[in-house]
Structures are given as structure tokens and as C-alpha cells.
Amino acid sequence: MSAADARDRGILSVADWRRRRVRATTRLTHGILLFSLVVVGLGPILWLAKSALTPTQDTLRQPLALWPNGIDWANLSEAWTRVEIDKYFLNTVILALGVWVVQIVVATTAGYALSVLRPRYGKVIVALVLATLFVPTIVLLVPLYLTIVQPPLLGHSLINTFWAVWLPAGANAFNVLLVMRFFDSLPREVFEAARMDGAGPYRLFTSIVLPMSRPIIGVVSVFAVIAAWKDFLWPMLVLKDPALQPLSVRLPQLQQFIELDVFLAALAIATVIPIVLFLVFQRLFLNGAGLGGAVKG
Fold first, then answer.
1. 255: DSSP letter
2. Chain segment 128-178, per-residue pLDDT in tens
């Protein structure tokens, strides 16, 4: 198929693109759609960033105006000190790192076992893992909470410990299936060559599979960190001690005790980290999203 034939298979043919009116209308439509996506996607974030530096009265009277009475940089410092953003920020980082480690370990080891080792009842296990995706999360809330209150074998409750958030995060069927699907795309010839050289299951996993799986590990990492950063309901239930609560739980509880501008500044600070993480790892995330092309050549 030639390039001209490929272009002709679109909505508009090459002959249509040569018409000035069609070309102008199409470009205008593309511009309107792009502007709408920017407004819908970035509008709330930009408004939050603007309001974080705006006094409360200006935000209430002129919410869309750009700093009619100047910028108030003191909002950020007051939010950091008065709201104790640093303490709750550290709690959030600890929770996110723990969730990330647990999900990476569970997803990679389970995906490796189901895709590379392939146990005898592997298909049954995959079907059971897949079936859990159809169970609403709210249905599992009560039994999961009772398990955390009285965990088997431990003998004491995990309430008000970070383990109450870390351990349930590992039971993520989506990540397991995602990693397993990526491992399925890896070349089996490499595995067979490693086995012939004497590599066992553990050596094969650490020296061959993991180095080839950086794209999907990046994808799971972004999913895990962002989900842990914005999680509200479960940390609120199991972390009742305010000294252990993350930003997502503590900030709504402090809203009634602080001014609007300080609260918006605190929200802006809490929003920066997920945005920065995605911007830093966006290339790795987008390359791994296709789950293909693990090995070239």
C-alpha cells in the first residue's frame, strides 16, 4: 500500500484536503477540540495554582481574575508550617513508598510465576485472579477491615500502623495481569538459553526477566504511587491516629479550621508530587503502556 493510499483511507481523502474550505474547517475544528481539552484537563489545576497565591477575599469575589490585588506568597509558607504539611507529607511519602514496594514485589513475582514458570494449574489461577476484577471494591471493604483488625497468625491488630495500608495494596489483580501479559511478550528463546547455561528460577527472574521489564515496572510504579497518593477511604478507616494520616485524609479534616487561601495552598502543594512524577516518568510510562516491543532486533 502506498503512502497516498494510506492517507486516502482516513475520513478525509487527499482530494478533500486540497480544498481550501475543507482544510480550514478541519483545522478550526482541531483547534477548538484542542483548546477544549486543555481547558477541561488543565483548567482545574491552573485555577488551583492561581488560587494558592490569591487572598481569600479575591478568590471569593473574583474567582477567575488573575491576582486583582497582587500575589500572596505567604499562603505557601503558612500552609507548610501552620497546617504541618511537612509531617503529613512525610506520612504520604512513606505510605506511597510502601505501597509501591509491595505492589512491585507481588506483581512481578506473581506475573513471573504465571507467565514464565507456568504451573500446572496456572490457567485456573489466572481465571480466579481475573474474576476478582469483577468484584466491586466496596463489597470487600468490611471483610478486609475485619482481617486488618484481627489478622491471622499475627495475634494483634494492624490498625494505626502503615502495614494496614501496605499489605492490602499488594492484592491488585490488575497489576498482576498487566505484568503477566508483558512477560508473555518476552522472547522464550532467551529463557531457554539461560536455563541451558544453568540459570535457576531465581537467577532467571533477577538477571533476565527484571532487566527486560523496566517499561512495565515503570507503568506499575506510576499507577501504584498515584493511587496511594490520592487514596482517601481506606487510610481514613485504618489510620485513626492523626499523626499517621496522609495528606489526602488530613487536609479535608483541617478545612474548617483554616482560611480558604491557606487550604488551597495546602492542596496545591499536595498536588505537585503526582504531577511531577508523571512528567518525570511519562516517557517510560507511555513506552510501556503498549505492552509490546520488549526486545528489539
1. G
2. 999 988 988 888 899 999 999 988 878 789 999 999 999 999 889 999 999
Q: Cell 502495614 identifies what position?
A: 163
Question: With the C-alpha atoms ordered 270, 275, 278, 280, is the resulting torsion angle positive or negative?
Answer: negative
Measure the CA–CA gap between 179 and 288, rounded to whole angstroms.
10
Length of the chain equals 297
Which of 36-40, 101-105, 169-173, 181-185 ranks highest by mean pLDDT? 101-105
Whole-angstrom distance, CA of residue 106 vs CA of residue 22: 53
Cell numbers at 45, concatenated = 489545576
Distance (Å, rounded) from C-alpha 96 to C-alpha 288? 21
Q: CA–CA separation, 105 vs 92, rounded Å?
A: 20
Report whether pLDDT(2) > 70.
no
Q: State the number of CA atoms in the 13 A half-sphere of 104 facing the CB.
A: 17
Statement: the pTM of the whole predicted model exceeds 0.70: yes
Give the span between the Cα atoms of 210 and 217, in whole angstroms. 9
Taking 3-state DSSP, the helix, strand and coil percentages for the chain, each rounded to the nearest 5, stand at: 75, 0, 25
